[in-house]
Amino acid sequence: MSVAQLPIFPPASLTPQLAADIQRVFAAQQHTALTLRSSSIEQRVAKLKSLRAVLMEHRDAVVEAAAKDFKRPAVEVDFTELMPVIMDISDYCKRLHKWLKPRRVRPSMMMLGTRAWVRYEPRGRCLIIAPWNYPVTLTLGPLIPAIASGNTVMIKTSEIAPNLSAVLVKIIRQVFDETEVAVFEGDATVAQALLELPFDHCFFTGAPSIGKVVMTAAAKHLTSVTLELGGKSPVVVDRSANIELAAKTIAWGKFINAGQTCIAPDHIYVHSSVKDPFVQRVSAYLTEWYGEGMAAKGAELSRVINARHSQRVASLIDDAKERGARVIYGGAVDIDAHFVSPTLLDNIPDDARIMHEEIFGPLLPIISFETVDEVIGRINAAPKPLALYIWSNDSANTDSIIARTSAGGTCVNHIAAHFLHHNLPFGGVNNSGIGSYHGEWGIRAFSHERAIVKTQVLTARLFFPPYKPRVRKILGWMLKHL
């Protein structure tokens, strides 16, 4: 069985100038990376504060760009694009001294007579490949710990959200010299050219299918990776849940940014005894907030990013309906306007595409269940999700679901809260990601944890040749008491 080769774009796919710029900047960052190893925490904090100030200067520009790319409401932009970044920077500025402080460790029995500690050192030259769905948060989010850790960075923004990409380029170039942080725009050929370089760490946010390409490219240079991927994040609503609160919160968390969120609820398992009232309350909130069907075109509701993705989402509805699914709310589509209304589906057969592909749009399949064991079996039969949401006031059900499943993160009686809780690691597992970041986990992602041992009394000389009988006696005593 042959192994699929990573697609290599010929140099001619890039303009000669852009190809030369990439090589030039990468070479220039080598010297900067070495210099930054000895940079002070105060210097790094000053850069983060400068980034925060410039980002706030461009607040209106970010809102305007998001409106052009997504027709995204200004409140959503402030809440999802600016607030997480500002909060993150403030956190790093306050706690960086603590997070970077060398960590002393106690000596083990074999290491008596030594002192040891862990030192956090920058990885070096890092690559960040950013997605299009939340360009500001998911570009600057990893950039913050990369800078705080003392690295240089080359960034590839997404061409799919061109207006937000253009604003990001302005912000980054205003704050940083390209020898420390450089940003490149362009299509997949630019990303491929960057992936050919021997970076010290690569941070990618996007689909699992592209994550495999990134990991394959990184493997050629033994480059470490952080992969923030996606998948189909399920929600479980059991019979004990607060249906009113669950319906309102799930409707908000699902349809913000038109469902184009990696941790958005992908599909819902609802206990059959509460399914009808749950659907009624979700439908009522959607009508109150947006209006049903084509009426939602005039609401403060983000659009699907482009016509291609609108067609993809619409095809999921058509495929499900052809296989027997029922649209119980919404279902309106205007491809030219990049509009798909908030849509609820029922009676979805297992072979429908919507049950196997990441939806990444404003469609919400609702599936009834009878027992928690049934739901756990279905969750475990699918790839491990980035998020798992549980709505329940039954601690036994909650504990059972958490203990018997695997997911990148889990919220009980909330949606997406673990992303905003920066005292927690954020990341996936297997198909939904490798590694994590946010807070101190961001430092770990962009730092090498260097182990250092300093010998004060050389007890190891007891075991130097020639080996005497007493050595085995000492080892025998240690083996019994370790």
At a glance:
It contains 16 helices and 20 strands.
SSE blueprint and pairings:
Blueprint: H1 16-36, H2 41-57, H3 59-70, H4 74-100, E1 103-105, E2 114-122, E3 125-129, H5 137-148, E4 152-156, H6 162-175, E5 181-184, H7 188-195, E6 201-205, H8 208-219, E7 224-228, E8 234-237, H9 243-255, E9 267-271, H10 275-289, H11 307-322, E10 326-329, E11 333-334, E12 339-340, E13 343-346, E14 363-369, H12 372-381, E15 387-391, H13 395-404, E16 409-412, H14 417-420, E17 426-427, E18 433-434, E19 436-437, H15 440-445, E20 447-455, H16 469-481
Helix pairs in contact: 2-4, 2-6, 3-4, 3-6, 4-5, 9-10
Walkthrough of the structure:
It catalyses: (E)-coniferaldehyde + NADP(+) + H2O = (E)-ferulate + NADPH + 2 H(+); (E)-coniferaldehyde + NAD(+) + H2O = (E)-ferulate + NADH + 2 H(+). One of its GO terms (molecular function) is aldehyde dehydrogenase (NAD+) activity. The active site is at 228, 262. It holds the Pfam family Aldedh. InterPro entries: Ald_DH/histidinol_DH (IPR016161), Ald_DH_C (IPR016163), Ald_DH_CS_CYS (IPR016160), Ald_DH_CS_GLU (IPR029510), Ald_DH_N (IPR016162), Aldehyde_DH_dom (IPR015590), Aldehyde_DH_NAD(P) (IPR012394). The protein is 44% helix and 18% strand. It has 16 helices and 20 strands. Strand 1 (103-105) and strand 2 form a beta hairpin. It has a seven-stranded mixed β-sheet, sandwiched between helices. Strands 5-4-3-6-7-18 form a six-stranded mixed β-sheet, with helices on both faces. Helix 2 (41-57) runs antiparallel to helix 4 and helix 4 runs parallel beside helix 5. It folds into two domains: 11-229 and 435-450, Aldehyde Dehydrogenase, Chain A, domain 1 (3-Layer(aba) Sandwich); 234-427, Aldehyde Dehydrogenase, Chain A, domain 2 (3-Layer(aba) Sandwich), CATH 3.40.309. It is of the alpha/beta class and 482 residues long.
